[in-house]
Structures are given as structure tokens and as C-alpha cells.
Amino acid sequence: MTVKVLRPGALATLQDLGRRGLQHLAIVPGGAMDPVAHRVANALVGNRGDAATLEIAVSGPELLFERGALVALAGARFDAWIDGAAFPGARPALVRAGARLRIGRATAGAFAYLAVAGGFDVAPVLGSRSTYLPGHFGGLDGRLVAAGASLPLAAAADGLGRARFARAIRKRREVVLAGGAARSVSWFAPNLTVPTTEPAIGRAVEGAHAALFTDAARAAFYGERWRVAPDSNRMGYRLLGPKLELVTPTEIVSQATCLGTVQVPAGGQPIVLMVDHQTTGGYPKLAELIGADAPLIAQVPPGGAVRFVATKLDEADAARAALAQRAAELIERILWEFGDADA
Question: I need a labelling partner for 103 at 20 to 30 A (CA). Which of 54, 129, 150, 217 fits?
């Protein structure tokens, strides 16, 4: 059974939690830009956190469900409709066969995740179903989801979805959508990663080459509002703002990079490396965005504003642990609704 893509949207790919432990072989981690929202979407349909979801950026697709399925849309807030009626986010919905789900533009945040009970059934590559567009592998043969594509689901997705939805409404009243095109629940999952401030605030620790930059450049990085450039992507967010200058022009030997590394090319405009970042780089590293704030900054759309706040390693570790605990508690509450779900 499949989901047919009638309209692809701006940037839709199949993603999971990525390929860990292979960067020494020049294989980037990749995976969901917002792994917290990805895991919540999976929990909302009773899946394990590593099941493949459809990552949707800025503007979404239109999909035809050839069989019934239990689905959930979590992460950034998108306008969405099921057979022309409003489709609620952040909650499970049992969609009947033949229904059309149209996802419009994001109204808050940048990335949302459509999960289906049983997951999208594509073959793993190097241990992951994530799409890596520059390498042309993973997901749907390393490609963007295009019009006419069929997104394969698990063979038992229809029955699995009905069984899980029955458990989810065992103690609560169901909500009927679009005259029965879908059935949902009255509860929803709160968002943990979409920014609630303008500009979004990202904490960062000092980078390996911070001392090579002028005092004015370091002050500007932490004191100015930065705009996410339109040509930003899953590899990196280019930031528009004042030019950040080195004390003396310096060439850096290529070194390992990671999610959140803030590199500054010769033009002086910083780039925050995202999940599909290159494995090594030769630009000076001014700062490192902390891991807890990487999903939040990923949710800033092109044109959105970011400001950075200096922090310390111990504070970064505490923030990561706090986010992990909040996510785990939320997922535990969601899965409680499903009783004996698989996740």
C-alpha cells in the first residue's frame, strides 16, 4: 500500500534519525532537521522514534491515501486540509482510503514531520532510511519527493492504524473530520522546538578559532540580529548581518565539523552547519551552537531572525539533558494513550 504524491511541495524528503558513527568515512549524519519533532510525530501514531517520516519544509505536499492509515503531523505549524476541511496538527488522525491531505504553508517554524503508523517502508542505506540529497542515496533513491511518486507503507499499515486508533480513543471521545474523511482525538502534543521569540535565541560556546577574530567581530556575532538567508538549506544556514573580520587573514587546515559549527568564510557572513553538513571544513570556526538549540534554530525559516547568546560547556550539557528529559516525558505521555503501542 502507498501514499500517492499529487503535488510535491517545496522540499519534502523521507528522513529518520540519521547515520551515526560514519563521519570518519565521510558519511554525514543527516536525518531529520528537527529530530525532536520527528520523534514526537512517530509517537503520535505509536511508532518507534527511528521510523521514517516525511519531512516537509516551508510549503507542503498534497497526498492521496490509497488505503486507510493512522497519521500525524508534528513540528512547525502548517495550514492543512483533509478533503477540504481543516486538518489538525500534533495529534493522531485515522484517514480513510481515498482521502486527500493537502498541506499548505508553514505559519510558525519551518519543518514538520508526517508520520504514518508502521513508518514509510523504504530500504535502509548504511543503516538509515534518511535521504541525503547531495549524495543521491537514502529515502526515495536519494531524491526529493516528486509529483506522481508513491510513498510505500508497511503492508499492515491499514490494520495497524485502526488498532492503534481504537486504543487511543478507548477513554476519550473521537472527533470526526470532513464528514468522516478522517477521525481524530481531542488531545494534542505541545511543541518543544518551534521558536516562541523573535528573534529565536540560540546559545553557543566559543569556537576553536574565536581568538582569530577581532573584538568587534566577536561582539557583533553575539550582539546583532541575524537573518537566515534564502539560499540556506539542510547543509547550512547562511546568516545575513555585519561582516565578521579576522585580526589577520588566515588560512585554516581542514578540520572535522559537526552539527552547529559556525564557520565564517572570507566574505565575513557566518554559516551555521546543519544536519547534512560536510564532514570537514577549512573556514575558521567562530562558535558552536549547542546541541539543545540546534532543532530550534533549524525551525527558523528563510528570512527569520536569530540572535546568539554565549554560554559554557557545562550549561550546554545541562540544556541537552533537560531537552532530552522533556522530550522523553512528552513521548511517554503520548504512548500512554496507546496502551501497548510498539514504540
Answer: 129
Three-class SS of the chain: CEEEEEECCCEEEEECCCCCCCHHHCCCCCCCCCHHHHHHHHHCCCCCCCCCEEEEECECCEEEECCCEEEEEEEEEEEEEECCEECCCCCCEEECCCCEEEEEEEEEEEEEEEEECCCECCCCECCECCCECCCCECCECCECCCCCCEEEECCCHHHHHHHHHHHHCCCCCEEEEHHHCEEEECCCCCCCCCCCCCCEEEEEEECCCHHHECHHHHHHHHHCCEEECCCCCCCEEEEECCCCCECCCCCCCCEECCCCEEECCCCCCCEEECCCCCCEECCCEEEEECHHHHHHHHCCCCCCEEEEEECCHHHHHHHHHHHHHHHHHHHHHHHHHCCCCCC
Exposed, middle or buried: residue 144 (CB in 10 Å: 0-12, 13-18, 19+)? middle
Cell of 69: 492509515
Quick one: average pLDDT of 46-75? 96
pLDDT for the residue numbered 257: 93
Q: Grid coordinates in use for 29? A: 549524519
* pLDDT for res 118: 95
Residue with the larger pLDDT of the pair 206 and 1: 206
Residue with cell 512528552: 330
pTM over 0.90: yes
Predicted local confidence at residue 342, as pLDDT: 52
Burial of 64 by CB count in 10 Å (0-12 exposed, 13-18 middle, 19+ buried)? Answer: middle
